[in-house]
Every structure is written in structure tokens, then in C-alpha cells.
Automatic annotation (TrEMBL):
Protein name, UniProt field: Extracellular solute-binding protein
Keywords: Signal, Transport
GO molecular function per UniProt: maltose binding
Cellular component terms per the entry's GO annotation: ATP-binding cassette (ABC) transporter complex, substrate-binding subunit-containing
Family: Belongs to the bacterial solute-binding protein 1 family.
Gene3D superfamilies from the UniProt entry: Periplasmic binding protein-like II
One of the GO biological process terms: maltodextrin transmembrane transport
Short name of any one Pfam family annotated for the protein: SBP_bac_1
InterPro entries xref list: SBP
Amino acid sequence: MVERADPARRNRRTRRAGRGPAAAAALVLLASGLAACGGGGGVPTLSWYINPDDGGQATLAAACSKASGGRYRISTSVLPQDATQQREQLIRRLAAKDSGIDIMSLDPVFVAEAANAGFLRPFPANEAKQFTEGVFPAAVENSTWDGRLYAAPFWAGTQLLWYRKSVAKKAGVDPAAPGFTWDQMIDAAVRTGTTVGVQGNKYEGYMVWINALVESAGGQIIGAAQKGDDAAIEIGSPAGKQAATIVSKLARSKAASPSLSTDDEERVRFLLNGSRGGFMVNWGYVWRAEKGDAESGVIPKTIPSDLGWARYPRVSAGRPSKPPFGGIELGIGAYGKHRNTLAVDAVRCLTSTPNMKRYMIDSGNPAARAVVYDDPEIKKEFPMAGLIRDSVEAAAPRPITPYYGDVSGAVQSRWHPPASVDPATTPGRSATFIRQVLHDQALL
């Protein structure tokens, strides 16, 4: 049995997310109003709160509504762009026991928090198999808390190394070769006067990079995460120091972006397409975005043909990298009227293998089931489909803990800006700060 975090701490953190009794009361009124809107006769409406995309989730909602034969209709509401803001909006409403949230698209790192707080309806064993069969292990792991499945894997993302083939040739390196490391990449960029694009802004994308480096070095940021605020803090290990060495080397080199400390996914894609573009780590959406921008004239039409891809770089040549894991899981609200009936049927439809394929083609976001990558249509649309599949198979999740927001915030605060990172002190200082934050001895 997995040990739960102390209930008193859980309740205190829930109140913090709700911003006090007045906010909670207002949300209760809002929730009752939303529930009333869904009442009355006619076809039941299920509310699905989605992360922003290019319309793919809305398309699936319409398809599953039609496939239900009139048993239900799914309406979509778009959450904020930033994952942390998505979490805040959902947690506030769930803390107020909002019955107007039937289904929600969750960033994997927030499933444990919502499940531990009792905000998600768990899938019993007789339901869980249909949502996990053939699904990537990392997606199942991120959807599980306390030994129970609390969300259905929907799509599973990972980062690849994207590069300009002309730059790699000029530098005399092959990023797709076994053993290609961060050091080799940074040195190649310095030799060619180009950049290595990473997500260095003080946000979740920076935590993704740090975690991938630590994991690729053979370590982890925290261990025994099931112990909640008593988890083992391990970022001060040799693996943490190796990760800090890479961050420091890049930040202090000529290969660093001039705006490294504020760079996000789209900023580094912009850099890759510029005159100093060389290398970049980024998510799988890049291929579809680059093709679309070239077709619309935003970037030169020659850029996609010069775009190469490879597995996430290694920290050391002798140890395979552990690429980042991301994606979206579908959770069912614990307070929805249809949580045990229609909402389960809708999630079953939305996460079916055919609909995962359809969503991957529509949005460019990779499916959570490996079999989708063997589909001829997927292989044609995504020439790197096999690499994405293998990378997700090898991916390492960020810490799975109900206090993930505290852990991530503590790491970002001590590792930012990247140029301030010192391998001799930063990992140890961040380990101390994480422990202090988890024990309420320090504030973020």
C-alpha cells in the first residue's frame, strides 16, 4: 500500500490553492450555476476542460458525441495556455466541489496532487485495463496514484533533438550517432557560431530540462515520492552535479541563446529558424509547426528539408539518455453527476486507439499507445514516428508526488537564471530548499 501524505497537510494545501473562504464560496455559487445549466430534459451535456490545441480535442468531442447515439453531448471549455495556470484553475474549482467539471485534460505532473486530494474519480480494476492496455509505461505511471488508476492516458509527448543538418555537417558531427552528448553538441555549436536552444525561462519547461539531465545522469530529483513531504531529496547527488555542469557550460558559452533565461518552446524554435540556428531540444509538435510555417511563408520553404532529428542527447557517452515525458491524461471529476456512467463512456471513446490516431494526425501530438506508430498513415505524416515511439518508451517522468508544484517551484528558484548555476553549490542548495519548502520552513 502506498503511504498517503498527511491529511492535515493536504487540506492546508487545498485551502492555499483556493485562496480563502470568500473565493471558495464564490466558486460554490459558480459551480451550482453551472450544474443548473446542465440540468433539465434533453441530451445530458458533459463538460470537458481542455488544454489549448488547434481544435483537435473539440473535433474528438463532436465525434464521440455523435458516436454516443444521443446518450450524451460533450462540450469543451479551453483552459489557460500555461500548465501551471491550468492546474490552478482546476484545483480551485475542484476544491469547491464543482459538479460542472465532468472531464479534464491534465498535465501528467498534476494527476497525483488531484488524486491525493480526492478530486478525481478512480478507475476500478475492471475498468482500468481498457485504458492502459498497450499504453506507454510512463503514461500509465503518471496516471496512477496509491496503486489506482486516476486518469486515462490520452497522448504522450517527449522531446527530441532537432537540428539543422547543414550545421551538423559543417561541425563534423552526427547527432543521430550512438553516444552523442550535450558536450559534443555545445562544442559543435560554438565551432559553427550557432545556438543550442533549450527552455531556460523560469517556468515548468525549465524543470523539464533539469529533470531530464538528472535522470539521464542516472539520478533523480526526489526518491520515495510516495512518502509525500517526507520524500528523499536526491538532487544533490553526483547526477545533480552533472546536470548542473551542463546547464552552466551552455549558459556561459557562445552557444547560449542571448535570451536564454526567458526562452520557452516557441522562442527556441524561432532561434532554430534564424541565422544562428543550430540545435534545439523540443517537443514533437515541432515537425507539424515547421511544415505549416514553411507552407504559409512564415519561414523559408527550405528549412524543413534542412531539419534533422535524433534522440535526446546523452549526459555521458556510456549511458543512454532518458528523454522528458509529457502529454495529457484525461481525469473524471469526483463531483460530476455522470462520473460513474456517461463520463466513463466518453473517456473510453476519447482515448480509443482510432481516436488517438485521429488526434495525432489532427494536432501533431503523439498518441499514448505504441501500436498507433505502426500505422502507415502515421508513418507517412510523421517520418520520425519510430524515434518518437522509442523515445517515449525510454522517457523518465518528472517526480510523481502530490507536492509536485512545491518541488518544481523550489528547483526553479535555485537553478534560475541558468547562468547562475554552480555545479559545486546549486544542487546542494536546491536540495536543502526543497526540504525546507516541503516541511513549511520556507516559502516559494
